[in-house]
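Hey, quick one: can you model this chain's 3D structure?
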Amino acid sequence: MNNPHLSWLGIVRLGLVQSALGAIVVLTTSTLNRVMVVEYALPAMLPAALVAWHYAIQLSRPRWGYGSDMGHRRTPWIIGGMGVLCLGGVLATDATLLMASSPVLGILLGILAFTMIGAGVGASGTSLLALLATRTAPQRRPAAAATTWIMMIVGIVITAAVAGSLLDPFSPQRLAFVATGVAGVAFLVTLFAVWGVEREPERQPETQEQKPPFAQVLREIWAEPLARRFTIFVFVSMLAYSAQDLILEPFAGLVFGMTPGQSTQMAGIQHGGVLLGMILVGAFGARLGDKKRAWMRQWTIAGCVGSALALGALACAALVGPAWPLQPTVFVLGFANGVFAVSAIGSMMGLAGEGRSSREGVRMGVWGAAQAIAFACGGFAGAAGVDALRVLLPETSSAFGIVFSLEAGLFVCAAVLAARLDLMGAAAPRVESTPSVLEGVRS
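Sure thing. Here's the predicted structure for all 443 residues.
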């Protein structure tokens, strides 16, 4: 079938789905986290466990990608996933409010809600990336990756600002009103974003006789050397990327004596660097995208090396103390993170179509699952590592320095893995998934 590539307007429209995803996720993982811990004086481990659970649920991403592959339409999965996510966000708010009076019932409802959030993010996000990968021209993929991720950050920033202003003065009724409003707007934005993008399926859906079992498809993907190597790279790099999330602001307060306001401003500087790095890669990618994998691989390696150097500088800052220029260092870390993140996503979009056809959704799902597990493990490992070392070592600064050094080492490993991806050569030739071909596939 004739499926023209997405225009820039189409790419921006699909980026609105990322904005909607970011809006719901920041409400549930940030705002509700604060309400549980501060307003309701619940243990901090409770929201942390719920957030970790929603990442664990995203191990289902390959299954959602398989569903959109077999039907050859992504739009229903994007809309359906967003619907589940929005309902999960509202339900999570209700669960949080219920915890004040009935903690056990509130926690049980929260588990259900964060299960829906994880499933919704997995179904919608995986299908969105698969749609972008299959409908975006190769030379536009780096810029498309930058555009969609920048729009996700914009969605987070706008939601945080608007919801924050509407929540003061705080009351349970205001929280319920704001959560419902954010969920409703996010769903409507998603409907607008995907309306008419898929005017027809990419191919005819598989018949029951043609449709291979999910387990077989997963084995096929894992048997592809390039897909397997990239999965390992995604896990290691995202583990390094996420490990500093929960310790950077405590580091600024404990070692540099920054106030909460100052450490928050420092976080803003870091995110400014992330945005600049993303914009840089997107702008160059629009011009040089014809280099495809080699070009994006070079930027990915550069981002990993830059992140490792910045984390090494933070380890030195832990030893030097307040005399170290912390804010410029954090800006460089954010910039390198932005370069790495967008180039890696651009590579992901390009590699999704390598190998056997009609498997883009499953590949995106496998890589998304690796990312989710890395984020769940990374944030916890970074914070737990600092806690453990603070008990064992006499100086708090030494604990942070060791953890930052280990994170830098992970980024070096990620850079080596990214460099080796090119040595694997191209993946298996792209072939169509017909019954005759499937019968001869080695599992």
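One thing worth noting: The CA atoms of residues 68 and 74 lie 5 Å apart.
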